[in-house]
Amino acid sequence: MKLFGSTFLRKKNKNRGKSTEEELFQQQDITKYYSRQVDENKKHLGELFKGTFDFKCESIKIGGLKGYITYISTMINKNELSNRVLQAATNRQTDQSFRDMVEMRELYFPSIDYKVSKNFHQVVWSVLNGEVVIMVDGYMEALTLDIGLPQQRAISEPSTQTIIRGPKEGFVEALPVNIQLVRKRLKNPRLRFEVFQIGSDSKTNVALGYINDIVNEDLLCEVRERINKVDVGALLDSGNVEEFIADKSFTPFPLVYNTERPDSVCGHLLEGKMAIIVDGSPFVLTVPTLFVDFFQASEDYYQPFIMASFVRMVRYSSFMIALLLPSLYVAISTFHHELMPTQLLISIQAQREGVPFPAVIEIMIMELSFEVLREAGVRMPRVVGQTVSIVGALVIGQAAVEAGLVSNVLVIVVAFTAIASFVSPIYNFSIATRLLRFVVIFSASFMGLYGVLLFLIMMVIHLVSLRSFGIPYLAPVAPFRPKDQDDVFIRMPIWKNKKRPSYLYPKTPVRIKDQYKPGPPKPMGDQR
Amino acid sequence: MKNILVEKLSLWQLFILIFIFEIGSAAVVSTGNDAKQDAWIALGVAMIFGLGIGLFFHFLLSRAPGKNLFEIFQLCLGKWMGGALIIMYILYFIYIASRVLRDFCELITSFIFEQTPVEFVAITMVVVIIYMLYLGIEVMGRTSEIFIPYFFSFIIIIGIAVFISGEMEFTNLLPILGEGIKPVVKAVFPQLLTFPFGELIAFTLIIPYTSEFKKSKKIILLAVFASGLILIYNAILQIATLGVQMRARSNFPLLSSAREISLLEFIERVDLIVVFIVMYGIIIKVGVFFYGALKGLELLSKRPYRMHVVPLGAIITFLSVKISDNFAEHIEEGLIVVPMFLHIPFQFILPLLILPILLWKTKKSKEGRE
């Protein structure tokens, strides 16, 4: 028996935040030594950033001493720089002297967020991060001022997970903004964010967020460990992290959840999951991920629970439709005519009369052309979008039928399948149905319904064998947990949802203790 | 935490596995034909014996906690004698697994794909089973958790649908015990006793690995009882729909009954549903016997059972095809030869012979400890 727990040995705090600034540049052969002579530092920096037009190292006089102000001009907010830093440094009436950098900052830049860099690596790191570094002659440390980044994309509505009712804010590319979006929703001192620097070239900030008194300690260690193991040149999107930390790569099902919605992340944090925010990506990952997560939209919790439960049912059934409808068509029209009522059979066969292909070729042609259309639709410039949709609808749909290449029923099947595959609230879940659909069509084409059943059983076996950070992927259905069923197929009313999911082994399993049930006020006379 | 997350078969999973295992092929092939219209009574009687059989196996296992049947053999008979017995059991399990597989192949090739060779069905089925067992017994349990709602509701729905279609003739069940108790006894012994209830012997290799062994006794009884009820329900459904004669002649009476369904002039020929029930039942049944054989090999070869999955699967496929030349031969063997010469010795006689030795050994070891 495979002992799953072997990876779960307690490694408390051992791997917390491995990459500090000091370690970052060690392998790149950059000196760590920060000199008392500023000119020497300037020389080193100049060599390091040689040939870069936006690297600036300008001399200033501060407190009567020689100094340099260093920054990358494209990474900083220029207004802030001139208003708050340069003016403060030069317009000072008295040339007061100072003991160290902290005192200097108190005198000259009291309102700016700061850091004191004691070695050269930290200086380089700060410059690269868009901070302004002030080096003064005769001091063993440099002052780093954080004056804010240049303009970012404004917070806007998420483009992939639109909803009708609920908050319309979506994550953006900047890590601090994303953390702020989560923090302002959960005012809890135990909401923690640990930062990791990942990528030997990109040194991307990756934040791991969790609520300390909810999340399971061992799960947390496991996630930390996996993030630390990510070894990649450059981390350009959270998708890169996802592939590194998932339990298994050879599966069409996503084992890590991604979302653009801060409210959805908060919901997951409150359940006892963890969020992984990657700088530069508006998609935040939450782990561990379960199969059922992909059928829960955050809007479910803002709509009346009856409606939400119904919509959830619709989602589950459209998953099955998207997966199986084309293959059922192939199986029934090729092998099992007797399963259809006679009238229906006659009308379907009459339409297929002139079609020169067997059903499987017919459906493969249509499915593949739909996949092409879909891919073209995503990548092409918006301007030509109209053209493609017209060509797609007319040529592929109507003309193909009129030319006798495919039958009408088949167009209905393919169209309905396509629409059903878009129902999942998370886009990348439909990848599974898109890929597996072809497998099951193939299987149905030579084994009929028996093939479809074989495929289904194989798929379920595969699904139950999957795990996300050690949690069975199909929990709480398999293994079955009766207590966790209130938010799976149907959503129970919010006031009933008092427990956190037990399959995540949260530290505090109960959300709220007292039993409250909404109801009308008691009649005035009825004072029992 | 580590212990929580190490997966073992939960009690609920054990219940489901026994439930599906018992119903598996028994619901589909015609059972208890000797009792004619009283087949359902025979099933009821067999079920009561089945409860006893379950208790007996559980008692056997509880004498040596944490040990499965094969380990008990080695404990009682020593390495060589026990090993010889284990080899016999492995062969028995392989043989039964291939017989069960053949049942299904015959169903598919005679009802759904008339032109398809038996080999094809056998190979595809075994591939699924190999995949499942390779991933472990917990995967089998969890997969069953996913399918149990469908499995259960389909069986119930078939009966209701036949009833609504107006195809049931409850007079077919009369006269109750018209020929006395004799035909019932004849049906129960040895056929119904050994198949499906005696086949619980395969679970003696699974029960020791459940999460709570102590509570498993109740679960076994419940599962045998529940599956017995479903089998009785099934028998009544088949007799009422087809009549005694038709049922006896039909190879797969459940399938024949389901073909009578006609609702709303739209839902007809629900063969697929029956095929699903049978298919999943067979997968579990073959899987459990297969697992039993694998556990024996694991014990003898001292290598993880995963190593043996593929070769043994190939053997089962081959045997299931070669076991008999045609369906008539297959059924004849299944009804006469196998119960007398295989089931009875392996399910009852050998464990009963072991029992006194086990009692003596465990008593001795207990005294030794004191």
Considering the chains and any ligands shown, give keywords for the structure:
heterodimer; A: 528 residues; alpha+beta; 3 domains; 5-stranded antiparallel sheet; 15 helices; 12 strands; 41% helix; B: 370 residues; mainly alpha; Amino acid/polyamine transporter I; two-stranded antiparallel ribbon; 75% helix
Describe the structure.
Chain A has 528 residues and is of the alpha+beta class. Chain A folds into 3 domains: 21-146, no CATH class; 175-289, no CATH class; 305-471, no CATH class. Chain A has helices at 21-24, 38-48, 78-90, 101-108, 120-128, 175-183, 217-229, 238-245, 262-271, 305-334, 342-352, 359-379, 385-402, 408-421, 430-465, and strands at residues 55-62, 65-72, 113-117, 132-136, 142-146, 191-198, 204-211, 257-259, 274-278, 284-287, 467-468, 471-472. In chain A, helix 12 packs antiparallel against helix 13 (385-402) and helix 12 (359-379) crosses helix 14 (408-421). The N and C termini of chain A lie far apart (61 Å). Chain B is mainly alpha-helical. Chain B has a single domain (7-357), classed as Amino acid/polyamine transporter I (Up-down Bundle). Helix content of chain B is 75%, strand content 1%. Chain B has helices at residues 2-5, 11-23, 39-63, 69-112, 118-135, 137-164, 182-197, 216-249, 253-258, 271-301, 306-322, 327-369, and strands spanning 262-263, 267-268. Chain B has a two-stranded antiparallel sheet. The radius of gyration of chain B is 21 Å and the shape is globular. Chain A binds chain B through residues 1-5, 8-9, 216-218, 335-336, 338-339, 341, 447-450, 453-454, 457-458, 460-461, 463-465, 470, 472, 474, 477-480, 505, and chain B through 1-7, 10, 12-13, 108, 112-113, 121, 124-125, 128, 131-132, 135-136, 139, 141-143, 145-147, 265-266, 268-269, 271-272, 275-276, 279-280, 283.
